[in-house]
Design brief:
single chain, about 325 residues, alpha/beta, Rossmann fold, 3 domains, six-stranded mixed beta sheet, three-stranded antiparallel beta sheet, 11 helices, 11 strands, binds flavin-adenine dinucleotide
Length: about 325
């Protein structure tokens, strides 16, 4: 956004799209998440009908909440045109239900989602990364391999991914449903608004005419250009595969000595995959995770839970279906 919106996770493209739908009367209501009144990290589903109230939804919360339960409220209040903002698992369920809803129009604004966890687990993570976790107001896993933190007093902090205390997290910190998610990029949304294909900017995937119409609603409030593409992902993805194999098999990960971490943490953003290549790397890593974790935890479900596109993504890394893992039909 030319003028970033206060309180937004990045610059506020997502919440502004919802706002524009209401302002232009193309939606009667938007279903999205606002912060819980007692715990601002906890998502709380809301149905917003006044354009100015979309500001309440800005920012990212970690956790699960029943977004689509609000479809009952949509029905009760007789709304016919709605916008839904959601992560891939929510959008997937929405698409499965949409024909039964009797609505005239559904605008679907999606964000990518690599992993989610319970708000309780997320608080544990905050406790591990900072001595004053209650002061943290903002957190983002950025595409330059850093976590950005912002604090109530206006301070900012950046932590290289390699310096995160990930080995201290409980093994089920991310649930199996997230570890085996096959739709990182929210492919059923009309438009996906993320950051992982950007190099410090937001990243848009417009998937159909409706997504284009949404983008048009922003007019010249939005500045856009083609994404960058740099570095090579193969080495990073292979390393990830090796570590995930060890972790899924319950073995200790190949640990890097602590003294080396700041140096590698400095190098990776400069020589590692960037822009579109980073996005490709993350999509392939998620596909690898899906196969390895299901193979370990629920092998019998593999043929039902792994769509073809995942096998195509993992094949270049030698990860192919074994007997019984893929329906031959
Ligand atoms: C759990 C989670 C994981 C994510 N992982 C990635 C990732 O790996 N890569 C990537 O590129 N992008 C990821 N994103 C999306 C990234 O945060 C978006 O690019 C960003 O929110 C959009 O920025 P913005 O300034 O345009 O949004 P804003 O205008 O600030 O609006 C944010 C919107 O997200 C909604 N939201 C916040 N928390 C949740 C939640 N828990 N569940 C559902 N909706 C929520 C809000 O209600 C609001 O509508 C993730 C988002 C979430 C919620």
């Amino acid at each position: 956004m030319r003028e970033p919106l206060p309180g937004a996770q990045w610059t506020g493209i997502v919440s502004r799209l919802g706002q524009r739908l209401l302002e232009s009367n193309q939606a009667d209501a938007i279903i999205t998440m606002a912060p819980d009144e007692e715990d601002s990290w906890r998502p709380s589903p809301v149905l917003i009908t006044r354009a100015e109230d979309m500001a309440l939804a800005r920012g990212m919360r970690m956790g699960y909440a029943p977004l689509l339960a609000l479809l009952d409220a949509v029905k009760d209040q007789g709304f016919k045109k709605i916008g839904v903002i959601g992560i891939p698992c929510q959008v997937y369920a929405l698409r499965a239900l949409q024909d039964e809803l009797g609505l005239e129009k559904i605008w679907v604004i999606g964000t990518p989602c690599s992993d989610n966890t319970s708000t309780e687990n997320f608080h544990e993570f905050l406790n591990l990364i900072d001595p004053n976790p209650e002061q943290i107001t903002y957190l983002e896993f950025r595409a330059d391999y850093h976590v950005e933190l912002r604090f109530k007093n206006g301070d900012k902090k950046e932590i290289p991914f390699l310096m995160l205390p990930l080995s201290k997290l409980r093994p089920d910190f991310f649930p199996l449903t997230c570890k085996t998610c096959v739709d990182y990029t929210n492919s059923l949304a009309d438009i996906t608004v993320g950051y992982m294909g950007g190099t410090g900017e937001q990243w848009l995937l417009v998937r159909n005419q409706q997504g284009m119409a949404l983008l048009d609603l922003l007019g010249d409030e939005l500045i856009s250009s083609a994404p960058e593409n740099a570095g090579k992902r193969a080495g990073a993805v292979k390393g990830f595969l090796k570590n995930t194999e060890l972790a899924a098999g319950g073995l200790p990960l190949r640990q890097m000595p602590n003294w080396l971490r700041p140096i590698v943490g400095w190098l990776i953003p400069r020589i590692g995959p960037r822009g579109l290549e980073f996005a490709r790397a993350r999509v392939e890593m998620k596909a690898i995770e899906t196969v390895l974790h299901l193979r370990r935890s629920l092998p019998k479900k593999m043929k039902n839970m792994i769509p073809n596109h995942i096998w195509k993504l993992t094949a270049p890394y030698g990860l192919k279906p074994q007997e019984g893992e893929k329906d031959s039909v």
